[in-house]
Specification:
The protein is α+β, with helices and mostly antiparallel strands. It is built from four helices and three strands, in the order E-H-H-E-E-H-H. A three-stranded antiparallel sheet has the order 1-3-2. A hairpin with a 2-residue loop joins strand 2 and strand 3. The longest helix has 10 residues, at 53-62. The radius of gyration is 19 Å and the shape is globular.
Length: 80
């Protein structure tokens, strides 16, 4: 008899689950997807999109440690 091997199935996340991980609103996430800044996900039916957990993890890992948009406070500014 053939042995059944694990398939290595990837965990699928719904939009709601992705929004629990990524701290932005729904509209912001959709704009990020449109601009190519976040994975598009996969439609598993005409109206159901999912993201593989490892794709979201890879996106997180690719983020810089600090934001270039964030202004850094200098020591002089912190004293005032």
């Amino acid at each position: 008899m053939d042995e059944v091997k694990p398939t290595g199935a990837r965990r699928m996340l719904t939009l709601e689950q992705v929004l629990e991980i990524v701290p932005v609103g729904r509209n912001t996430l959709m704009r990020m997807i449109d601009r190519g800044e976040f994975p598009r996900g996969n439609f598993i039916s005409p109206n159901k999109r999912v993201w593989y957990e490892d794709m979201v993890q890879a996106w997180q890992d690719a983020l810089p440690d600090h934001s270039s948009r964030k202004k850094r406070r200098t020591k002089d500014a912190a004293k005032n």
